[in-house]
Each structure stands twice: as structure tokens, then as C-alpha cells.
Write a structure and sequence with these properties.
The chain is mainly α. It is built from seven helices and no strands. The relative contact order is 0.10.
């Protein structure tokens, strides 16, 4: 007996797509994404189980409305599984960027916005340019470099003053704050969508419980009717010989009467 229906599975597929898009955004920002992997894996397992349940239902009782949706569900499951196992931070399948429910188009558009690239070069050097009047504050800005063993790769800071360096790093921080704000909004939408899916699943469970109870009642009635038919059949077989004898006696009596 099926535990889901196609609309519910398409909604679950949209939830997985949004989770994968958020995961890719985290990867593009070099943020940890392991916290989402477990939930995405469970959602993929639920989608796979739902499709198998629908296939079992169609095998028992043909339903064109379900059969027509199964190829699309299988295709989306395959694409989403491939995207999840891939370490790429960009979508590899158009399925991931296309929602099944048009109402989620705005969420998908927000989740697909590319974060602004942030330069990771460190604008510091151990050897600031010397001048007749060195700036002590500027000298304190360059105590660090990424690769102490390579002096030739140190960036040239001679063209930047303290104010420009401060403005540059302030802009980097603002960009990162903006990206984190967008990521927080996307996570909030994911939470709302997860709550809606949970409510839908709870309602489906109640309906399935009612259906299961009805099936059990009908099965019990069917078993009682079959038992009565079996008893009647056995009695008919037992009385068959007696019926044949009575018919032969009637025929013999009629023949005697006719011959006289």
C-alpha cells in the first residue's frame, strides 16, 4: 500500500533542490556544509522510498495518474542523487534549478544568486617601503604574510595608503555580511518549507491510518464470506451422491408407471 502520492513527492523534491542549492552556496563561500548532508541524504532516501511505494501500488492496481508521473520522479531522483554525490559548487543538471511548484520560483531565484567574489589576497608585507618619514601606524598594518618562505610573491602595497587599506577591508566585511544575511534568509525559508512538509506528512499519516483501518475491515468481511462459501461447497460435494440416488429412484418409478 502506498504511503505517499505524486504531489507530495514533487514537494519533497523541491525541498531537496533548495537544500542542494543552499549547500552549493555554502561551498562557494568556503563555509562548512556537512550539517546539511545528513538531512539531504534522509530526504533522498524518503523520496526513493516514496517512488518505490508508488511503483508497488501501480503494480497492484493500475492508475494512469500515478504511472504518468513516475518517469519524471525517477529522473529527478537520479539528477538530485548525482548532484548530491558531486562536490561541485555549481549545478550540473537543469533539474536542480527548476521547481515543480511555480510558487517556489522566487525561493529558487534567491538560492541561485551567486555571491560576490571576495579577494583573499593579503595586502600586508614584512618589508614596507621606507621613506624619510615612516608612518608607524602603516608599519603596524603589515606584520603578516601568508608564505614566510617566499618574499618574491609578497604583494606590492606601495600604491595604497592606510585609508585605502581600511576601506578595502571594510568593503570585504560588508560583502561578507551581505552574503551571510542572504544565506540566513534562505535558511529561514528552508525552515518554513520543512515545517510545511512536516504538517503535510502528518496529515497524510492520519489519512493512511483511516485507509488502513478500512482495508482491515473489508479484509475481515471478505475472509468470512470466503469461509462460508467453502463450507457450502463442501456440503454440496457431500450431498451430491445422495442427490444422484434420489433422482435415479424418481426416474425408475416413472419408468415403472409408464410401462404399466
Amino acid at each position: 500500500m502506498s504511503t505517499t502520492n505524486p504531489p507530495q513527492l514533487f514537494l519533497l523534491a523541491d525541498h531537496i533542490k533548495l537544500s542542494l542549492l543552499e549547500r552549493q552556496r555554502a561551498l562557494s563561500l568556503n563555509l562548512p556544509s556537512n550539517s546539511q548532508d545528513v538531512q539531504i541524504s534522509r530526504s533522498l532516501d524518503s523520496l526513493r522510498s516514496g517512488i518505490e511505494s508508488l511503483e508497488s501500488q501501480v503494480a497492484d492496481n493500475a492508475d494512469d495518474s500515478i504511472t504518468s508521473q513516475l518517469p519524471r520522479l525517477r529522473h529527478q531522483l537520479s539528477d538530485l542523487t548525482a548532484q548530491f554525490t558531486s562536490s561541485s559548487s555549481t549545478p550540473t543538471s537543469p533539474t536542480l534549478t527548476s521547481p515543480n511548484n511555480p510558487a517556489l520560483s522566487s525561493d529558487f531565484a534567491s538560492a541561485q544568486k551567486k555571491p560576490r567574489p571576495v579577494s583573499k589576497s593579503v595586502r600586508f608585507t614584512d618589508n614596507p617601503p621606507t621613506s624619510s618619514s615612516p608612518d608607524p601606524a602603516r608599519q603596524q598594518l603589515f606584520p603578516y604574510r601568508d608564505d614566510p618562505s617566499s618574499d618574491a610573491d609578497a604583494p606590492d602595497q606601495s600604491s595604497l595608503d592606510n585609508q585605502q587599506i581600511h576601506e578595502y577591508h571594510s568593503q570585504v566585511i560588508r560583502d561578507q555580511d551581505e552574503q551571510l544575511d542572504r544565506l540566513g534568509e534562505s535558511i529561514g525559508r528552508q525552515r518554513e518549507l520543512s515545517m510545511q512538509i512536516g504538517d503535510e506528512l502528518d496529515g497524510q499519516v492520519l489519512l493512511l491510518d483511516d485507509v488502513e483501518e478500512g482495508v482491515d475491515r473489508h479484509q475481515a468481511q471478505f475472509n468470512r464470506a470466503r469461509s462460508r462459501l467453502e463450507r457450502f461447497s463442501r456440503k454440496a460435494r457431500d450431498n451430491w451422491s445422495l442427490t444422484v440416488i434420489v433422482v435415479l429412484i424418481v426416474i425408475l418409478v416413472l419408468l415403472i408407471v409408464i410401462t404399466k
